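Hi C.,

You asked whether I'd gotten around to modeling the 126-residue construct. I have! Everything is below, sequence then structure, no commentary in between.
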Amino acid sequence: MNPYHTPPPYGVPLPADQATLLATLFPSLKEAVGQWVVDEMRKWQLAQQEQTQQEKIMTRHALRAEFNICTQTARNWEKEGILNPLTVGRRVFYSRPEVLAALKARTKPDGTRLHARRKATTNKTR
């Protein structure tokens, strides 16, 4: 027996020439590869859905890091009813689309935020 020869799958008789061998094995190989692609796409879609779910909620510290919003501002917006927090135990989460809408409502046309802290434009010396 040739050492490079692999036996055919169970139940498939060994054809006489390679062309018939490829013709008999190709449909099963095509089906196996197609099923593998479908399974991998499902895994990828589930991973994407999970990632978007995690991106929809943010903590106060994530707001500070991403949008440069002070944690106290987030608390103030809670009190004013602008943001509706989701609490899990002691952790507080905010809806990302809700935060984006609040930021858009509090942004001037020139791109600066309303009621934002402003740096002094002059150097005060004593």
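If it helps when you're writing up: The two ends are 98 Å apart (CA to CA).

Thanks,
B.
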